[in-house]
Design a protein that fits this description.
This protein has twelve helices and two strands; from the N terminus they run αααααβαααααβαα. It has 277 residues and is mostly helical. A two-stranded antiparallel sheet has the order 1-2.
Length: 277
């Protein structure tokens, strides 16, 4: 009886214990990156991504699985899916912004103090965020959870975890918290579905990058309540309700974001990847 709590019918360690082991390794490697000063040497997001990758490699090594099984194998197809995802995330945020603009939710001013350097710095930041969060939310833990509980249950659970992980962000209160939680949950579903459709992390990483970079560095809105970059454009709000504009939290707390996120999920659900090369 005790043995069955740890091992499945094939004698392999159950996926829940594998995820727990991954979490312990990640905490250990995160402590190591802090102790070595990597958080100061690099951005914290890149240091955490390194810790996540190290924990993933150890787990895969113990399972005698190669890294490509995680969906990280570099190839032309990987680059193509990453680019497609980035274009999709950027387009989604542009559509949300244009919809709010059509309802006179804000008007734009040119960010006179921003230039190409700011756009590139934002790209580097949001690439780090995309790599970090996709390794955490749709990498090893998600993939092992899917094996243990099934695709749709794992997709929903990780989507809820993704939304909950943003609850401590600035501006998470009142109606903003409700709309932001809904939209971030939908974003989690979209990102998870992008992995499931391709079995690679390229597309979800690309969507994540395009979503954040367009919202923050290009359009000048908050990104999940943060203002870590200066926008190429600066939105000036026209005293419209925050459920329409998203307010200081960003487009992720708006009704139009929910509409276009649902449309993107439906579109991705019927998307058919190119045949394997």
């Amino acid at each position: 009886m005790l043995k069955s709590a740890f091992l499945d019918s094939q004698g392999a360690l159950r996926n829940g214990w594998r995820i727990l082991g991954f979490a312990v390794l990640f905490i250990g490697f995160s402590f190591a990156t802090r102790s070595l000063g990597l958080w100061e040497l690099f951005r914290p997001e890149w240091a955490e991504a390194l810790a996540l990758l190290a924990a993933t490699l150890v787990c895969l090594r113990l399972e005698q699985e190669p890294l490509p099984t995680l969906g990280l194998a570099p190839a032309l197809r990987w680059a193509r899916e990453f680019s497609l995802g980035a274009a999709g995330g950027l387009t989604l945020m542009l559509l949300v912004a244009v919809a709010i603009l059509a309802f006179h939710g804000f008007h734009w001013q040119r960010g006179t103090e921003t230039g190409w350097r700011d756009l590139l710095q934002g790209l580097w930041l949001y690439l780090a965020v995309a790599v970090n969060e996709e390794l955490l939310f749709h990498g090893y833990p998600f993939q092992r959870l899917a094996k243990g509980t099934g695709t749709w249950i794992s997709l929903g659970l990780i989507g809820l975890w993704f939304a909950q992980a943003h609850w401590d962000n600035p501006g998470m209160a009142g109606a903003t918290k409700i709309w932001a939680t809904l939209n971030i949950f939908l974003a989690g579903l979209l990102l998870g579905l992008a992995y499931l459709k391709t079995r690679r992390l390229a597309m979800p990483m690309g969507i994540h990058l395009g979503w954040n970079w367009a919202q923050g560095s290009l359009l000048g809105f908050g990104v999940s309540g943060t203002m870590d970059t200066r926008g190429w454009l600066n939105p000036v709000f026209n005293h419209r309700p925050e459920w329409l504009t998203g307010g200081a939290f960003g487009l992720e707390a708006s009704l139009p974001c929910a509409f276009f996120s649902l449309a993107a999920i439906v579109g991705l659900a019927i998307y058919r990847p190119l045949p394997q090369e």
